[in-house]
């Protein structure tokens, strides 16, 4: 099966809802907020800056463009109507924020419209990321900032000992749900080729904390997907989900992945 995030709007509503709940759990984890804060607080935007998030999901990261990056307005573009509805409902009442259905490869915005474009865990899901980077270049003002952050997916693990069966669920989910595992190792070349000036590249280690809410969604979805694919009996899947929860309760659960952020600027004179 291909990565469902690469065409989320075409998936059945139940799957879109399940993915939206997982995205929201991830957005709200303090360790994830710390990653976003680490690369967004240093972006130095002009007064009254207009920001855009491509692949805005549930809208929490779009809101960070106001709260952490200091933009005056932030717009989220996202192909899944379930995600867009959720974002609108969550942030109804803040007229600095807006959300629309759309495609990052063909946004429909005029040239030089934005001071900041963000892609947070978008590009790993897009076949042809070069097209999205080119579109960002077109719609950024001269001097505008592009911020990209994504997982370095080959580092994802829940392994606490040799041959740990829980880790297989993580590897399986990454294999099923990520189009390009290596995007953050390739992105600087794509940006330079498009004409961007490269800025800071930073690694961020994510360790699941407390109730491990997001990692548990990964384990549950991985186990259920293995049942659908005939790889596991339903009882075995339930046992693996219980194993993860027992580890959380016993403080022995470990979940880890590296993220990498890359900042780039559109030059003033081309
Ligand atoms: C992993 S989610 C991240 C959502 C949000 N940025 C966050 O970090 O919470 C990736 C999102 O990118 C969206 N997406 C995938 N392909 C896209 C495209 N071509 N244009 C815009 N968004 C896209 C998906 O629908 C999904 O909501």
Quick recap of the structure?
This protein has 270 residues and is an alpha/beta fold. The protein contains 9 helices and 7 strands, in the order ααβαβαββαβααβααβ. Strands 3-2-1-4-5-7-6 form a 7-stranded mixed beta sheet, with helices on both faces.
Write the layout of secondary structure elements.
Blueprint: H1 13-28, H2 30-40, E1 50-54, H3 60-67, E2 73-78, H4 81-90, E3 97-101, E4 114-120, H5 129-139, E5 140-157, H6 165-177, H7 183-194, E6 197-207, H8 213-228, H9 234-249, E7 256-265
Parallel strand pairs: 1-2, 1-4, 2-3, 4-5
Antiparallel strand pairs: 5-7, 6-7
The protein binds S-adenosylmethionine.
Mind explaining what this structure looks like?
This protein has helices at residues 13-28, 30-40, 60-67, 81-90, 129-139, 165-177, 183-194, 213-228, 234-249; strands at residues 50-54, 73-78, 97-101, 114-120, 140-157, 197-207, 256-265. The protein is an alpha/beta fold and 270 residues long. The chain has a domain at 4-153 and 180-208 and 258-265: Vaccinia Virus protein VP39 (Rossmann fold, 3-Layer(aba) Sandwich). α1 packs antiparallel against α8 (213-228), α5 crosses α7 and α8 (213-228) packs antiparallel against α9. The mean pLDDT is 96. Bound molecules: S-adenosylmethionine (SAM).
Task: Give the low-pLDDT segments.
Answer: none
SS-based class = alpha/beta
The CATH level-2 architecture of the domain at 4-153 and 180-208 and 258-265 is identified as 3-Layer(aba) Sandwich
- How much of the polypeptide forms β-strand, as a percent range? 15-25%
**Average pLDDT taken over every residue:** 96
Span from first to last CA?
42 Å
CATH homology superfamily name of the domain at 4-153 and 180-208 and 258-265 = Vaccinia Virus protein VP39
List bound small molecules. Answer: S-adenosylmethionine
For this structure, the quaternary state is single chain
Radius of gyration: 19 Å
Shape: globular
Kindly identify the CATH topology of the domain at 4-153 and 180-208 and 258-265. Answer: Rossmann fold
List the total number of helices: 9
> Tell me about the biggest sheet?
7 strands, mixed
The number of strands is: 7
């Amino acid at each position: 099966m291909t990565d469902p995030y690469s065409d989320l709007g075409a998936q059945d509503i139940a799957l879109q809802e399940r993915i939206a709940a997982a995205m929201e759990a991830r957005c709200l984890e303090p360790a994830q907020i710390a990653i976003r804060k680490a690369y967004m607080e240093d972006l130095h935007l002009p007064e009254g800056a207009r920001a855009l998030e491509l692949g805005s999901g549930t809208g929490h990261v779009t809101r960070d463009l106001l709260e952490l990056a200091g933009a005056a307005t932030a717009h989220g573009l996202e192909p899944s109507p379930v995600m867009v509805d959720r974002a609108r409902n969550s942030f109804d009442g803040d007229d600095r924020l807006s959300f629309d259905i759309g495609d990052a490869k063909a946004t429909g915005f005029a040239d030089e419209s934005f001071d900041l474009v963000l892609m947070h865990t978008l590009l790993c899901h897009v076949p042809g990321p070069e097209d999205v980077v080119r579109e960002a270049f077109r719609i950024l003002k001269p001097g505008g900032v592009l911020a990209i952050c994504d997982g370095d997916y080959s580092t994802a693990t829940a392994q606490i000992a040799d041959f740990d069966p829980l880790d297989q669920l993580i590897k399986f989910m990454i294999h099923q749900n990520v189009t390009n595992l290596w995007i953050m190792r390739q992105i600087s070349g794509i940006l330079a080729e498009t004409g961007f000036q490269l800025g800071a590249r930073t690694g961020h280690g994510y360790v699941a904390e407390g109730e491990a809410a997001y990692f548990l969604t990964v384990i549950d979805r991985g186990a259920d997907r293995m049942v659908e694919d005939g790889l596991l009996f339903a009882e075995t899947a339930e046992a693996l989900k219980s194993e993860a929860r027992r580890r959380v309760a016993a403080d022995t659960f470990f979940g880890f992945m590296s993220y990498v952020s890359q900042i780039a600027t559109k030059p003033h004179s081309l």
